[in-house]
């Protein structure tokens, strides 16, 4: 992975902490909208982590591909991943 490990790790640990908080909210039978808002906040952090990773993929893995065929394969992987994100 070519993304900054410190940034990605920080984001993922933050999301993990939020998930633990959401589980506690569910166990405490908290208000539905409050739980939903926390889920959306966690999704946003996971999306930021994913953007970091995908941007690094484009900047490093695709750009530094050894051949045109390898570059095309990496671009195909990226567009397939992007397609799953945008569903």
From TrEMBL:
CDD domains: CsoR-like_DUF156_2. The keyword Aminoacyl-tRNA synthetase does not apply. The keyword Cytoplasm applies. Pfam families: Trns_repr_metal (PF02583). Its main location: cytoplasm. Keywords: Cytoplasm, Metal-binding. InterPro entries: Metal_Tscrpt_repr, Metal_Tscrpt_repr_sf. It is found in: Cytoplasm. Homodimer. This is Copper-sensing transcriptional repressor CsoR. It comes from Pseudoflavonifractor intestinihominis. The lineage of its organism: Bacteria, Bacillati, Bacillota, Clostridia, Eubacteriales.
């Amino acid at each position: 992975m070519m993304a900054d490990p410190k940034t990605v790790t920080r984001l993922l640990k933050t999301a993990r902490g939020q998930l633990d908080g959401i589980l506690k909210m569910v166990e405490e039978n908290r208000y539905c909208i409050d739980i939903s808002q926390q889920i959306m906040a966690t999704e946003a952090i996971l999306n930021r982590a994913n953007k970091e990773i995908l941007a690094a993929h484009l900047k490093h893995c695709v750009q530094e591909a050894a051949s045109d065929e390898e570059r095309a394969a990496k671009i195909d992987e990226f567009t397939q991943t992007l397609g799953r994100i945008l569903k």
